[in-house]
Amino acid sequence: MNSRPTAPDRMRRVLAVVPWIVANPGRTLAEVAARFELTEKALLGDLNVVFMVGLPPYSPDALVDVQIDEEGRVTIQLADFFSRPLRLTPAQGLALLASSDGLLSVPGTDPDGALARALAKLAKAVGVESDESLDVHLGDAEVELLDQLRAAANSGHEVEIVYYSYGRDERTRRTVAPWRIFADSGAWYLHAWCRQADGERLFRVDRIDHLVLLDTVAPQRPAEAGLRAAVFQPGANDPRATLRLAPEAFWVADYYPAEIIDDAGDHQVVELVVSAVPWLERLLMRLGTDARITDSVGLDEAGALASDAATRILERYRY
Questions:
Q1: How far apart (Å, rounded) are the C-alpha atoms in residues 124 and 121?
Q2: What's the predicted TM-score (pTM) here?
């Protein structure tokens, strides 16, 4: 094996080695290294990474415990959170299955071991065969619009767009300098410099209503490292809302960036970052009686958001 694997290669290796050690406790470093075609030094390096896997507050019960005795026998005790049922959305389940071939192809992986059995159960749960082809859908943006944005990004020219902001429920005309076009979670996004905001912004391409290529040259393009924008980047001062969810609304914690504060089985308490109040209003109206706000930071009259939004909608239908 390459003595200097890439980070993805090493991650696949770790994800294959750990389940095998958990299922075969007490094997020596030499045995594990030989099975996975590693040197003992490389194996120890991987296990040192596993030591750091855990969840806040990183107490002993929230960390993966790797034990190596004086005779070199290895045992791994998984953290308590591994015993909790894992709730995956269908998209997350398919993504995990799509990467499973890479995990099972790591030298030394047991084709009938715990990892293979877990993936087989997951495939059954999402209703696909392990050897079935997957059709990947990257989003509904128009091909012509994507081509225009890519051309502008390559030439360095600005474009004028009419953009609908779902979170704020408003349309605006903006002059932007396209930097990067990428797909994420079933949608296409434009990472660009926006003159109106005087800063970098992300735009969903399918919410761009109109585009005109301009003659003006874009501001200086950032270094390549600066182009790795996340779809959602919460700010330190963004408002927060704490919601108590009924079981029918547990999907909220899977679908949106949320911190689970309490998971009691019959209810769940989560904290959401509120990027825009209209977005939260629509979410609360969609959830109905399955959710209620118990606390908030930076939101005025948070408890009345859903009812106020419903009242405004009813007013529109009276005329």
A1: 5
A2: 0.43
